Amino acid sequence: MKTKENATLMIYVDDFKMACADADKDRLWAPLRQLIRLSEPQLADRYLGCYTHKFKAKLTEFAPLLSTLPAQWSRKTADGEKRAVVEPWKPADPHKIVDGLCYDMSQYLKANVIDKYCSIAGITSASLKFAPTPFLDESKDEKGMYEKDAPAAQRQSESSGTVPGHWYVDLQNEELPPAPTKSQRKQVERAAHRAAAAGKNKKPPLPGSGFTAAEGELCRNAACVCMAALYAGRLARFDLLRAIQRLAESFHKWTKRHSQKLHRLVEYINSHLTCNTVS
């Protein structure tokens, strides 16, 4: 980041994106182009699957959004009483025109999440229903769905006086494990390299292969769909993050209920493809 010019450069592999004033553009790119062969800088319309669109609009068109600012929810009213309703948002100039950017990932989500999910599940996108939220009612989940071996944990807590669902080590009565030897460390490194190579050579999910997985094994198909959605969530669709995070906790203990939750998430994405981030 160049503080003086208030410029920021983002690099991902061979994609470069800079935010700066138009007057500083050529001067900031020149040192980089002397070291790296780069194409001519252009206005960014797409970067890593995210399309950006400039627009102009009246400030009052953002009233529903600006009315939710924390400043509208002060603790007390002008009379000193506890505030019960939001303070109406009143712009100083209701006719002011503002410049904005819209971040659109609808094409990415359609191709990399919805179509991929439908292919794995063996269904068509036309069968996806409207979903107002990305969540199912978790009160209907099976008891202990997100807990480790609840009976065993309960037995452990009764005998040791600890809290169920937590791991404890009694350092007074149990010796710490010895440090790994050089040979053991090399074995772990080789195993990690083999696992990484297997991941790189992993074939894409087969159409119709579904989302079933044995207890303790990674549900690769679910991880494939959720991680594709996570990229969009982190970049421009923050409304997806909580649902994806909850599913990611259970990739190694996937159940039919998790498949139902993933289906609901995909239905929500399909129902809200045109929802974009605006700045």
Beta-strand share of residues: 5-15%
Q: Radius of gyration over alpha carbons?
A: 26 Å
Helix content: 25-40%
How do the strands of the widest beta sheet line up side by side? 3-4-5-6
Number of strands: 6
User: Structural class per helix/strand content?
Assistant: alpha+beta
**Terminal CA distance:** 20 Å
Tertiary shape? extended
Most strands sheet: 4 strands, antiparallel
- Averaging pLDDT over every residue, what do you get? 80
Which regions have little confidence, pLDDT < 50, spanning 5+ residues?
149-174
What does the model show?
The protein has helices at residues 25-35, 63-66, 106-121, 150-160, 182-200, 220-235, 241-248, 256-271, and strands at residues 8-12, 15-19, 46-47, 50-58, 97-104, 277-278. By secondary structure, the chain is of the alpha+beta class. The protein has three domains: 1-42; 48-104, no CATH class; 109-174 and 204-278, no CATH class. The strands form two sheets. It has a four-stranded antiparallel β-sheet with strand order 3-4-5-6. It has a two-stranded antiparallel ribbon with strand order 1-2. A hairpin with a 2-residue loop joins strand 1 (8-12) and strand 2 (15-19). Residues 149-174 have low confidence and may be disordered.
